[in-house]
Write a structure and sequence with these properties.
The structure holds 2 protein chains of 2 kinds. By secondary structure, chain A is of the alpha/beta class. Chain A has one domain (6-191): Pyruvate-ferredoxin oxidoreductase, PFOR, domain III (Pyruvate-ferredoxin Oxidoreductase, domain 3), CATH 3.40.920. Chain A has 8 helices and 6 strands; from the N terminus they run E-H-E-E-E-H-E-H-H-E-H-H-H-H. Chain A has helices spanning 18-31, 79-84, 105-108, 118-124, 133-140, 146-157, 163-173, 176-191, and strands at 6-13, 35-40, 50-58, 71-76, 89-98, 127-131. A 6-stranded mixed β-sheet of chain A has the order 2-3-1-4-5-6, with helices on both faces. In chain A, helix 5 packs across helix 6 (146-157), helix 5 (133-140) crosses helix 8 (176-191) and helix 6 (146-157) crosses helix 8 (176-191). The longest helix of chain A is centred in the last third of the chain and has 16 residues, at 176-191. The relative contact order of chain A is 0.17. The mean pLDDT of chain A is 94. Chain B is of the alpha/beta class. Chain B folds into 4 domains: 2-217, Thiamin diphosphate (ThDP)-binding fold, Pyr/PP domains (Rossmann fold), CATH 3.40.50; 222-322, Rossmann fold, CATH 3.40.50.920; 350-519, Thiamin diphosphate (ThDP)-binding fold, Pyr/PP domains (Rossmann fold, 3-Layer(aba) Sandwich), CATH 3.40.50.970; 527-579, Alpha-Beta Plaits. Chain B contains 20 helices and 22 strands. A 7-stranded mixed β-sheet of chain B has the order 3-2-4-5-7-6-12, sandwiched between helices. Chain B has a 5-stranded parallel β-sheet with strand order 14-15-16-18-17, with helices on both faces. Chain B has a 4-stranded mixed β-sheet with strand order 9-11-10-13, sandwiched between helices. The longest helix of chain B is centred in the middle third of the chain and has 24 residues, at 195-218. The radius of gyration of chain B is 27 Å and the shape is globular. In chain B, 54% of the residues are buried. Classes of the chains: A alpha/beta, B alpha/beta. At the A-B interface, helix 1, strand 2, helix 2, helix 3 and helix 4 of A face strand 8, helix 10, helix 13 and strand 20 of B. Strand 2 of chain A pairs antiparallel with strand 8 (166-170) of chain B. The structure holds thiamine diphosphate and iron/sulfur cluster (2 copies). Residues 347-348, 527, 543, 545, 547-548, 557, 562-568 of chain B line the site of one iron/sulfur cluster (SF4).
Chain lengths: 193, 587
């Protein structure tokens, strides 16, 4: 068992399904025998604001929150939300980012610009996996499985938890009706570069 | 072992601790406690959403006097509303154990103020317990119930956003029933704080506080973790977890039962270490007392007093203390150029149309607290002041009486109306105000996650019940002009508001349409913009619907987000927006 605490930060926009992603990750860590803490945002920010979830696991975890420069991995359901959180990722950390863009109201109302995210993402994250998770999920039947595609991509990148454990965690967290789609989504994510 | 949030663990603790009745009013970060407690089926616990926190507290007092172990739940500001019954309860005392769970919100993630509930414990002279993770949340609840029964005092379990909304592992235990006799004891000298009986009650309360200080010193909820004696840190709640990250070797006095202050234990700890540092979130509650005991310490001279604590903040404290450099994680991107992403009304939100209609009038809008608070943000920008729940009506009335030249519109939500809007409306009619009151009735308590309330016709336990009518309340208060509008019909809203604003008497407008998130279904058919017809006039964007995206010169409707409310279609002068044929939309 790993002695060091592993910290995974997830970012996105309220309502995108970040909670399921953190739930699955936490369950996987429990199945692997770790002490686990998570933290999620509830309340006001869930109405379309920027949201993050923290998952930490290891031998003994104290703070449920990841500190700046403390994340081993960043998983983002939205392109620029990954940029917003870049300071949390360790220099050698992995970033798994969906190409999805959710245009904030500040952009639609003409007050701000949505930057082209690709170049900054590549510059900020030497270990970047940038994939169109929505398109993959849609191919499988529902855009809602994008979060699990990203989890697959994360599992494919880092060696934090073995693949069978991730799949067991998905079986625990997802309703039977959506299980097959989510397992397929996870496997498609695993193949992503 | 279960992975539970602090709130789930508090619910579990209440169940394991033999709680039979539970009352509360929703409020982030406390809401999920009752939502989880109501799921326990064997035995099931009576749970209710009361109309407001004062009523919840009072009902809980009744239940406790009847011998039932009882909890009451609310957020920090809810205790302002429930403070009156709490103060008296400390005098008359409990029968069945009563734990009041209050969830504070350091950092103001979802609250209008950042207040420290420990101050209320001191004001009321009652114990306060502060868990630092889910396991403690569950165990402290059970300890609190027993302490309450033993001392015949209400006990506050103080959580915070990070304790309530963090998950950690919890060991399950079986339920234990209370051995308290059931049934109310009809003994007025015990339960009526008239001066004759109240004065001895006051002296008895003081005696309990003194005894509880000794109990706290020996309580298993308070412990010394011996470490390097050169620095001793006194901490409680989530701050303990941050201390363990940043000062792994230090001696720690972890207080889970911090008031009545465990003087003996604090003195003992201070005598074992060279230097004392108090790390606490929000007020200098412990620090002030440590100093009053004559113990020199560091505290808020180093630890920030506003906002929530963090590991990062404590690393800076450590740097100041012993020079250990705090890591610098400089931004490598001009974050200030990233577009801000403030929360917004959801696509298809029924509040949007009403506030859009208000943009057509030069009036003052006194708003209130709920999803509709989001109307303060551009592009709608149609709320001028927010005070507290119910204030939307009473502030409007006072502003009018001060001679404000503009007409005033007071807006409250449906849950807010039942919470504390009715008294304000009564005042307005009674004292001859003429403002317009709008109740944005989305048939739910949306902001906190869609709870039922007296106007929804359903209880927390899932039973159908009488559906209280806002219009009937208005009538009973004496309002003659009562109008109901459909907020998805923008012109209709504008016309009705115009008529009511011209009327020389008070008026009640009920803007009624259910929240689509509560109903979990779209409002109507997905809409689409025909690029050939769109003249880029940006009229539709004035609604501030997040499904209407405008970037790089293209205006489009995001099919993954649109709820099909049709409001944007009404605003398009060129017929460019229309329902998408067949396919059934994105859902
Ligand atoms: C005294 C007090 N109790 C609870 C809250 C938490 N709270 C904030 S908004 C809200 C719900 C308001 O519901 P409603 O008025 O129906 O508006 P909606 O969110 O549905 O638009 C609650 C309970 C609070 N801010 N103040
Ligand atoms: S949850 Fe309902 S009431 Fe709240 S913003 Fe969304 S649609 Fe509107
Ligand atoms: S119909 Fe128009 S205003 Fe309504 S949700 Fe869809 S895009 Fe938004």
């Amino acid at each position: 068992m790993n002695d060091q605490t592993v910290s995974i930060l997830m970012s996105g926009v309220g309502g995108q399904g970040i909670l399921l992603a953190s739930e699955i990750t936490a369950q996987a860590a429990i199945l692997a025998g770790y002490d686990v803490k998570t933290n999620e945002v509830h309340g006001m920010a869930q109405r379309g604001g920027s949201v993050v979830a923290n998952v930490r696991f290891g031998k003994r975890v104290f703070s449920p929150l990841i500190e700046l420069g403390g994340a081993d991995a960043l998983l983002s359901l939205e392109a620029i939300e990954a940029i917003r959180c870049h300071q949390y990722l360790k220099a050698e950390g992995v970033a798994v980012v969906s190409t999805q863009r959710v245009i904030p109201i500040t952009v639609s109302s003409g007050k701000a610009q949505y930057p082209d995210p690709q170049e900054p993402l590549q510059k900020l994250f030497p270990r970047l996996c940038y994939l169109d998770a929505i398109a993959i999920a849609q191919e499988l039947g529902t855009p809602k499985a994008a979060n699990v595609v990203l989890l697959g991509a994360l599992a494919g990148q880092g060696g934090h938890l073995p693949r069978e454990i991730w799949e067991a965690a998905i079986r625990r967290c997802v309703k039977p009706k959506f299980l097959e789609i989510n397992l397929a989504a996870f496997r498609r994510g695993l193949e992503a570069k | 072992m279960l992975l539970l949030s602090g709130n789930e663990a508090i619910a579990r603790g209440a169940w394991e601790g033999g709680v039979r009745t539970a009352f509360g009013y929703p409020g982030t970060p406390s809401t999920e406690i009752l939502e989880n407690l109501v799921k326990y089926a064997d035995p099931c616990v009576y749970c209710e959403w009361s109309p407001n926190e004062k009523v919840a507290m009072e009902a809980a007092v009744g239940a406790s006097l009847g011998g039932a172990r009882t909890i009451v739940t609310m957020k920090c500001v809810g205790l302002n509303v429930a403070a009156d019954p709490l103060m008296t309860l400390a005098y008359i005392g409990t029968e069945g154990g009563l734990v009041l769970v209050v969830a504070d919100d350091p950092g103001m993630h979802s609250s209008q103020t950042e207040q420290d509930t420990r101050q209320y414990a001191r004001l009321a002279h009652i114990p306060v317990l502060e868990p630092s993770d889910s396991q403690e949340a569950k165990e402290f609840m059970k300890y609190g119930l027993e302490l309450s029964e033993k001392f015949r005092l209400p006990v506050i379990l103080r959580s915070t956003t990070r304790v309530s909304h963090s998950r950690s592992q919890v060991e399950e235990c079986p339920r234990v029933e209370s051995t308290m006799a059931r049934g109310f004891i009809q003994e007025p000298s015990r339960h009526c704080p008239l001066p004759l009986w109240g004065r001895p009650m006051r002296r008895e309360l003081q005696r309990k506080v003194e005894e509880l200080s000794q109990v706290a010193s020996r309580s298993p909820l308070n412990r010394i973790e011996e470490g390097d004696p050169s620095l001793g840190i006194i901490c409680s709640s989530i701050a303990y977890q941050y201390v363990k990250e940043v000062f792994p070797g230090a001696s720690v006095l972890k207080l889970g039962f911090a008031y009545p202050f465990p003087d003996e234990l604090i003195r003992k700890f201070a005598s074992q270490v060279k230097k004392v540092l108090v790390v606490e979130e929000l007020d200098d509650f412990l620090e002030e007392h440590v100093k009053a005991l004559g113990i020199a310490c560091d505290g808020h001279n180093l630890v920030p007093v506003c906002g929530e604590l963090s590991v990062e903040a404590l690393r800076v404290v450590r740097q100041k203390l012993d020079g250990t450099p705090a890591p610098v994680n400089a931004s490598r991107y001009a974050l200030e150029t990233l577009p801000a992403r403030p929360p917004v009304f959801c696509p298809g939100c029924p509040h949007r149309g009403l506030f859009f209609a208000l943009t057509k009038f030069d009036v003052v809008v006194t708003g209130d607290i709920g999803c509709y608070s989001l109307a303060v943000f551009p592009p709608l920008s149609r709320t001028d002041v927010i005070l507290c729940m119910g204030g939307g009506i009473s502030v409007a009335h006072g502003l009018e009486k001060a001679g404000e030249q503009k007409k005033i519109v007071g807006v409250v939500g449906d849950s807010t109306f039942f919470h504390s809007g009715i008294t304000g409306l009564t005042d307005m009619v009674y004292n001859k105000g003429t403002s317009v009151v709008v109740v944005v009735d989305n048939r739910t308590t949306a902001m906190t996650g869609h709870q039922d309330h007296p106007g929804t016709g359903r209880t927390l336990m899932g039973e159908e019940t009488y559906e209280a009518s806002i219009a009937d309340f208005g009538k009973a208060c004496g309002v003659k002009r009562i109008r109901v509008v459909n907020p998805y019909k923008l012109q209709e809203c504008i016309d009705v508001l115009k008529e009511e604003l011209e009327a020389p008497e008070p008026s009640l407008v009920i803007s009624r349409a259910p929240c689509p998130l509560k109903k979990r279904q779209a409002v109507g058919t997905l809409r689409n913009i025909d690029p050939a017809k769109c003249k880029k006039c940006r009229s539709c964007l004035k609604l501030g619907c997040p499904a209407l995206e405008s970037a790089n010169g293209v205006i489009r409707i995001n099919p993954l987000m649109c709820a099909g409310c049709g409001s944007c279609q009404e605003l398009c002068h060129f017929g460019a927006i229309a329902p998408v044929e067949s396919e059934g939309g994105a859902r």
